[in-house]
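Students often ask why we bother encoding 3D structure as a string. The short answer is that it lets us treat folding as translation between two languages. Here is a chain of 132 residues written in the first language.
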Amino acid sequence: MIEVIFIPVFLYLIGSLPTSYLFAKYFLKKNILLEGTKHSGLSNIYSYITFDKVIYILFLDVIIKGALPSFLLQIYFQDYFYFLFFLIIGHNWSIFLSFRGGKGLAISIGIIIGLSFKLFLLLLFLFLIFWA
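And here it is in the second language, the structure alphabet:
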């Protein structure tokens, strides 16, 4: 019963880690909450950094913050699906940034990868068809 309280709080804190904001603060000496879209996500920082750093931040948001927790929840719990919303809530309204955050796209893609890689490939294929 304690996991009903502990897991959502833990997932919220994982989602709340503002990777793009921290990267901009420590490496670029910028506060991205005051520039551009005023969000702390990758969409606001990508114009200031190189492609390899974008991939690094994307890896952290998609794989570490999104796919890994959703994959582990899928293995260890049966009724886990509603827990995953706390990752997105944490990313969008981070406790570390006074309840400001990103838009939730990268972490949502990570959750889809963690739940079903086949579903991710299907959605990617459909996106590429409609985009072309």
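Translate back mentally: The chain has a mean pLDDT of 89. Keep this in mind for the problem set.
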